[in-house]
Amino acid sequence: MTSLSDIREEYEFLEPDDRYRLLIDLGRELEEMPAALKTDTTLVKGCSAAVWVYPVAPETGRLHFLADSNAAITKGIIALVLLAVQDRPAGVILSTDIEAELAPFDLKNQLSSNRTQGIPNMIALIRDTAARYA
Question: Catalytic site residue 121?
Answer without folding.
Answer: no
